[in-house]
Each structure stands twice: as structure tokens, then as C-alpha cells.
Amino acid sequence: MKVEMTINGKDVSYDVEPRTLLVHYLRDYAELTGTNIGCDTSSCGACTVHLEGEAVKSCTILAVQVDGGEITTIEGLADGEKLHPMQQAFHECHALQCGYCTPGMIMAAVSLVDEIPNPTEANIREGLEGNLCRCTGYHNIVQAVLQAASAKSET
Amino acid sequence: MIPAAFDYVRAESAEHALELLGEHGDDAKLLAGGHSLIPLMKFRLSVPSIVVDIGRLDDLSYVRDDGDHLAIGALTRHRNIETSSLIVDQAPLLVAATAKVGDPQVRHRGTIGGSITHGDPASDIPAALIALRATMIVDGVHGQREVPADNFFLGFLETDVGSQDLLTEIRVPKVANAGWSFQKFNRRAQDWAIVGVAVHLDGEECGVGLVNMDSRPVRAEAVESAVAGGAGLREAGELAAEGLEPPSDLNASSTYRQHLARVLTTRALEEATSERLM
Description:
The complex is a heterodimer.
Chain A: E1 2-7, E2 10-15, H1 22-29, E3 48-51, E4 54-57, E5 70-72, H2 85-92, H3 102-115, H4 121-127, H5 138-154
Parallel strand pairs in A: 1-5
Antiparallel strand pairs in A: 1-2, 3-4, 3-5
Helix pairs in contact in A: 2-5
Chain B: E1 7-10, H1 14-24, E2 28-31, H2 37-42, E3 50-53, E4 63-66, E5 69-73, H3 78-82, H4 85-90, H5 92-98, H6 104-109, H7 112-118, H8 125-131, E6 135-140, E7 143-148, H9 149-152, E8 153-155, E9 158-159, E10 166-173, E11 179-185, E12 195-202, E13 205-211, E14 218-219, H10 221-228, H11 233-237, H12 254-277
Parallel strand pairs in B: 1-3, 2-3
Antiparallel strand pairs in B: 4-5, 5-10, 6-7, 6-10, 8-9, 11-12, 12-13, 13-14
Helix pairs in contact in B: 5-8
């Protein structure tokens, strides 16, 4: 069946089976492979994208549920060459080791700061409970989110 | 992992959804937020031939003050419950339990109706609904019925919502000034409860719901009667596992679960009491 959505501001439409998961729609049809598949069981958060501005796990949503909706993936965060402040903070704080969890971690972090504009370290650790970093690089990830949040609240 | 193939129909209204269920019987499954059903379908533990998507029935997503109780639409998402000032003020225990469901991404999508209809014995929200003596409104082919929380959860992944039924509303008594506590014991933040306890305490009126202590969420009646009879909190908490033979699994033996129920219930009673005095 035909499923249409807006991904990173661009309207797309593909003919997919109803059982197609959003993450496969994004990776295999829209060819946006920045969104990773980790556990595939809605535990690890590697596949986190924004649906109508909120972080969701794209491995646990059918593409057809999003028909007509608006998705932002990691590819849609930067403004041209200019990184999104959260991406910039991850870069500056070296908030990644192998990098596999990073796209999902950044999407979850952006959503978290939207909901809690001035998060404490505890807010961040709790708010990122749905994202696993198997390198256990949480320390710098939390620092990056703190930096991005304070940069955002100053502007 | 992808689910087995199925036909997809989007329900235009609650009536339409019921019509579709009537037409397709046991072959059909209702899809709300999908955060219980889709994982089951990916594991092929659920293989419906028709999925009826009720996720866009916005008229079933609401929180309303209905006098002595709050009326919560079955399709209200966890996030909307967590941030509803009405529920935060009038039934904070439900907010506390909801905040323990999954993680923020899951709570952005999952709905209260989907979660409780799934009937997982380790799920968080049923503990609060039992403690608060909530009532579920179920629409079926033979009309509407009111189901108290005690009669709603029937067994492992089984509730009173049959294959021809649609849960439409959850009614939670308004208990603004009551004491409450939600205690969930698990190994990692987003895990299911190894044991979970919800306590609602308002004078002698006491409600205690336990999860993962049986094949379904249950009421700790012995604790409630003890509190109503004026027993000390520790003495009452010691009765939490009475009559229950919880399952043993990788996380905990049955005996350890009984121990946890006693410890967590005592802790919950103490916290509920201290909050009330604040």
C-alpha cells in the first residue's frame, strides 16, 4: 500500500507492505541509513527518530501508522554544513566511542531538551534511559547534553 | 525482525472498529500505539491476519474531570498522562506508575488502554488501577459495560476485553489528598518489574495492587484488611504475599518474589503515610 510522509522536510511516497517497519521505510526506501537498527526490540534506542517532534523508536512503529506524518531523522538535524547544537556538543565533548548509538542518542537528547529545557544531570540520565551505549560512554554523553542544553537556554 | 504479513484497516470511528472486529472475529487485532502488539508480532507470538488501526481515533484520547472521578480515554498516551495537571493533582499514583513504563520514546507512543488490555502480569499501570479501584468502560457488540479493576485482569495476557470488544475509557476516583506510593523493583531502568507495588492510603481506606506476583496483577487483600483493622504498617506489609505463589524465572525465584512483595509493600505503606503527613 502507498505510504506517504514528510521526512526532513521532504515529501516522499513509497509502495510498501503494511508490515513494513518505519525504520525499514527510512533505511531501505528513503535510503536514509543514518538511523541504525540495534536490538530491534525497542530496548536500545539506536533507531530513535522524531515523529511530530517527539522521540520514538522506529523499530516499533509500522510505516503505515505514520502515513501523512512528519519525521525527522539524524540527517535532518544539521542546517547545511552547520551542525545542530546537540551534534556540535557531542563532537566537542567526544560523546561517542564506536558511534553506533550516536544517531539515536542525539535524537533522544534533542527531544529531552525540548521537554526539559534546563535538565539536571539526573534528568538527563533518566531521560536517556531508553538509549543504550554498549561502549558505556555515558559520562561524555551526559556532558554533551548538559552543554547543548545550557547553550540553548542562553540563546 | 518483521511481523508476519497482514491486512491493514484504519478504523474511522469506535463503531467502525467494532464493526470490523465483528466481521473478522479472532483473526483481527486492534492496534493503538503498538508498543505491546508490534513487539509480539515481530516475535510472531501474535499473528493476526487483520490489523485494525484505532490509533487515529482522537476522540478516545482525553482526560476529563467527571465529578468524583477522572475519565481517561483509552487512547491517551502515557506522556499525556504524565503531563496532565488533572491527573498529577487528582491521581498522582497513576502518574508515578505511568512514568515507570518503558522509556520516554515508549511513553510518547504507548497508550494506557493498549498497555492494560495487553494484560502483561508485570506491567506497571495495573498496580495503580487496582490500588485506586479504577473502573474500565468496555464497548462490545452487546453494548457497554463497566468492569472494576478486580474483574478486568483475568490471566496471563488475558483481560475482560474480548476479541469483539473495545476498551474506551478508564475511570479513576479523584483522591487529591490521599497518601500514595509506587515501588518497582527491577535490575535496569527500562526493565519490567520483578515485583511492583502500588499503595493508595486515605484514612482507613487502603488499596494495594501487586504486579508480577501471579499470572495477573492482583490485589493484596490481606494487607488492605490489616491496615483497615488498625495493624501497624510493618505488620500489614508482612502479609503482602499471603495466598500468592508467584512464578520463578531468570530474574527471581518464587520465594524471592514473596520476600520482595513484603519488603516493597512495607516500604510503600511507609512512604504513603509519610506523604500524607506532609
